[in-house]
Amino acid sequence: MYPPAVPSPSGIRWSRSVVTLVAVAVALSGCGSSLFAASSTTTPPSNVPTGTASTAPLNGEVAVAFPVVTCTTSTGASLGSQGWKPSILLAPIPTTLVDKVEFYSDGTHILLGPTGWSCAQTQVTGGGTGLVVYPPTLPIPPVDGAPGPGTQGVFATFDTTGHVQGILLVCPFFTLPTWQTQEAKCTGFKPNGEQSSMPTPDLASVTDPAGIVGSLEGSGGVGPVTGTVIFPQVEPAVANGSSVSVAEESCSLPDASLCPTVLSDFDVREFPVPASTYQPSYQPPYRPSVPPTTTPAATTAPIPASPTTVAAAPATTAPTTTASTKPN
């Protein structure tokens, strides 16, 4: 897993290790070790050293600079200049995958997929958004509606539990308030034969074996389809049924050995906690992060004696005289 992510002004989260990874890449490239993946689809900037990582330093896992391919709209039109579209991204991906995978971006989301494929936004009903990486040889891109059994691709869906489709995305794997499941008409049962586990309370790992039509896009074909469903357990938002951002990715590839890396990158890169719309009604009292400076108690300075003042003699008590009776 990557280190925690830091939101950037553009909305794309960078891990705290990116700066370190850049330093490592520069240092090793200066020593003659190349960390940049070659690609025939995207040319890195001229000031970036290129090559192949045929020698695997650090036991095969280093910061490799992978090219980024720009996606299109669902109709194949250009997305223009909207969003953030880098030409390369550094990622701690095994160097054995150099020339096998690259990144795809629509300016908002980034997916990892096989090299040389196509990418497009998908039409998702109910308020969500989607992105798919698919083989360029497909006669009809799988951008509209649910793909058929055995369709190859990397499919991603982004939604919230404020939408019915967002609830249906997570309810087979996570616990939601009863009124939410009733609103979405979700039974909470997974399709027969579908397998799932919970690596963390926020993450469901899903597998649809060959021939099983399950929750994942492309399932039901001759090969297995694996996927991940992310539902951040932000409390008390989840218990109250407040809208929380959720995400799902399915990996249906001819080379299934790529899927663990594809899904792992998605789990970290797209974890949508910062997008939660929950606002607590109770605001805790303000506590400054830096303790306030302690001010010593005020004291009254003594009034200096006048130079002409003579100190008074100590007070003494006069002796008591006992009254006596005069003799006759």
Question: Can you describe this structure?
Answer:
By secondary structure, this protein is α+β, with helices and mostly antiparallel strands. The chain has one domain (5-275). Helix content is 13%, strand content 22%. It has helices at residues 18-30, 164-170, 178-184, 237-240, 259-269, and strands at residues 5-7, 13-15, 64-70, 88-91, 101-105, 110-114, 118-122, 129-134, 153-160, 195-200, 203-208, 225-230, 245-252. The protein has a seven-stranded antiparallel β-sheet, with helices on both faces. Strands 4-3-5-6 form a four-stranded mixed β-sheet. Strands 1-2 form a two-stranded antiparallel ribbon. Strand 5 (101-105) and strand 6 form a beta hairpin. Helix 2 packs across helix 3 (178-184). Residues 1-59, 274-295, 306-313 and 316-328 have low confidence and may be disordered.
| Distance separating the two termini | 119 Å
Which structural class do you get from the secondary structure elements? alpha+beta
The proportion of residues in beta strands is 15-25%
Spans where pLDDT lies below 50 across 5 or more residues: 1-59, 274-295, 306-313, 316-328
Report helical residue fraction: 10-25%
Question: Based on CA inertia axes, which overall geometry fits?
Answer: globular
Average pLDDT, to the nearest integer? 75
- Record field, number of beta strands: 13
Strand adjacency order, main sheet: 7-8-9-13-12-11-10
Radius of gyration: 34 Å
**Major sheet description:** 7 strands, antiparallel
Number of domains: 1
Please work out how many helical segments DSSP would assign: 5
The H-and-E topology, N to C, reads as EEHEEEEEEEHHEEEHEH
